[in-house]
Predict the 3D structure of the following.
Amino acid sequence: GLGRVVETTDREIGRTVALKLAHTGAPAHVLERFRSEARITGRLEHPNIVPVHEMGVLPGTREVFFCMKRIAGRDMQQVIRERKWRLRRLVEAVHRAGMRIVVDVAPTHLNEQHPAFQDLLQNQERSSFASWFRVRRFPVRAGDGSTYEYYYERPELPWLNLGPGPAREHVFAAVRALVELGVDGLRLDAMNDAPADFWRALR
């Protein structure tokens, strides 16, 4: 994603809020996308959209942020790990409610917990997924940016090798699956971080 979300307290008003912070060291075009997300979300009013209260720069750390209402509930990652969550059910529920669903697709990187990256860490050069990633040198070590390339300041998000090959085909298959599930649109993220021929082939 474009940032991380933390829980904090608005001392002026005395309420607990969610603060989304842009990644430290993110380039200008990423920071502009981050601000654009805040502006667009802040103009929307809907019971199912988290309201944005404020956008700015933290005076101490100079981190770009926007402040949102804190929503209490279960963590989505926990629900997914329990394997009780199905995307098709979500799409159907959204459509029954008279809404449409647009999925934010970030095809340029994976989480370090993805089975492909875990296989690379375990089997190194022998891994059938070694070509999926931008490996700098072996042995690849989680969190060690000298051994593989990763998303801006986020070593837990290794970059995918999106040249012709199995990683590209995996992304294409995932996008096809989303379309077949009936999502209404795809927001393709980080377009500057993938080769132009990748986007032409995806289209």
